[in-house]
Every structure is written in C-alpha cells, then in structure tokens.
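[agent] plan:
  1. take the single chain provided in the ticket
  2. run structure prediction with default settings
  3. attach structure tokens to the ticket
  4. add a short note for the reviewer (M.T.)
[agent] executing step 1
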Amino acid sequence: MLASPDHTISLIAPAKVNLALHVTGRRSDGYHLLDSLVVFARFGDRVTVTKAASDAFSISGPYGEGLPDDATNLVLKARDALRQHYPAQAAPVAIHLEKHLPVASGIGGGSSDAATAMRALASLWNIGASLTELAAIGLPMGADIPMCLYGEALIARGIGEEIERLASFPSLPMVLVNNGVTISTPQVFAALARRDNPPLPALPALTSVDDVCSYLDQTANHLFSATQMLAPSINDSMQALRDTNPRLVRMSGSGGTCFAIYPSDSAAEAAATELRKRQPDWFVVASTSSIEGN
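[agent] step 2 finished; step 3 output follows
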C-alpha cells in the first residue's frame, strides 16, 4: 500500500488463480457450492484512489478499452457500497483503474478490482472495518469479492464466501496464458454434467512447489470439461503450456486463462519468453503467487 502527501493510495489488484476448483452442489437459489484452493499472483491491475473535489473515474491500460466507466463498473459499485455503509467518512474521490488483466478470463479481474478499491478507499477514508466486515459488504456484488479482499493463499467454500486462510503456503512460480477467448461463467455452470462432486482432499502440510503439485494431482477443476465444450480453443492454451515442460498445467476458474507451475522462477520466465515468441498476440505473464495479501 502506497500513501503520498496528496492523499493518494495505489494498490495492485492481483490475478486470482484457482489451483483447484471442485463443484460440490447447488443451492435452491441456483448458486453453485464450491471448494477451491486459491492463490493470488504478484501481477494484476492497479487501482489508485485520490481525495478530490468531486467524484471521478478513469480507466487505462492494455485491457481498459471497452470497459464501462459508469455505475455498472464493479469498482464504482464497490465505492458506492462502502459509501452507503460509511456515509460520514466517504468524501469525494477520484479513482483510476489501470487494466492489465484480460476481461472475462477466469482470474477474477473485476472482482479483484472491486475488492482492491474497497481496501484502498477504507484506508483513504480512515474506515476501521475488518476484512470480514468488508467481505460482508462486498459479497452481494460478487461471490469472488470476499476471497479477493484477502488476496492470499486460502480455501474458499460455500459460494465463495466461506474463507479459510492458510497459515503457510509456498510461493509458486507460474505462467498465466490467455489466447483471447472469453467465457461466460453462467454458461459454463449451466453446461456442467455433474454438480455433486466430492470436496477437496484434506490439505496436508505444504512446504515446497513439489508438495503443492503432488497435492494438486489429486484434485481437478470441475469446470474444465464444460469450458472445453463451449470454447474448444482452450485446448490450444493448455497444450502451449504443456510444451514448456512445467510441473502442472490447469485452467483457472471458468476460463479462458490457463496456468502452469514451474520448479523455479527462472524456469517460469524462460517458458513465458518462449511462449511470447510463439504467440505474440496472446496474454502471457510469468509471476509468482503472493504469500500474503498486498
């Protein structure tokens, strides 16, 4: 978190990576029940908030074009929700969103933007709300927002609101790839063949990349088959990553971003460099997972 004399706070809104995602049921209201092991990359969008004479909102970045800059944007929904709960402290603010993550790509970009805006504004406005309190405010806007507020290794259950923070978790060298496909999450869930899968296996002590990957070998992303049917080009991303000889390859969320885990940062960087040469038009980023929230 960066604070400056002109009352500005700037935070990274990190990419959310579902290392494993089990669909375990569906509620009567249609929401699916999940069991997901989640980490956050040290790469993402950036949200900057500044005290101002009147509210303002602007967007830039390689994936900013076409995003709504009105009240339908999750960042402004987050601002308005926080303001509704703390009206006396919510002075006018200028918000800038620098968009580096592809839209509708299964790595929580919009939810992470909203969660990060809430954290930045809570600090700027001197709101002493806990993460649990912010999560309760954020949940009606999106089931991923509570986990994005924590921004660290965790297990999310229920519809995503039941958060189990992990006391320790190794940093994972990884590469994120998106070949340009965008996926409708509701369509993916509607196409599921099965919704009563077993939960994640009990999490053992994990101290290394090998430990994590050995555990993940016992898990799955239960959304993959549906995404594969709706958007077969997801296979191109998966195969491109497999060709770099990583330890593990998987799709994140409902797609279309896939990720690979490598034994070292240098191996991940080398893989990303090679993938950019082969596919210059794809989104390709080497990063590591964050051990703690930003």
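[agent] step 4 note for reviewer: Confidence is low (pLDDT under 50) at residues 1-5.
[agent] ticket updated
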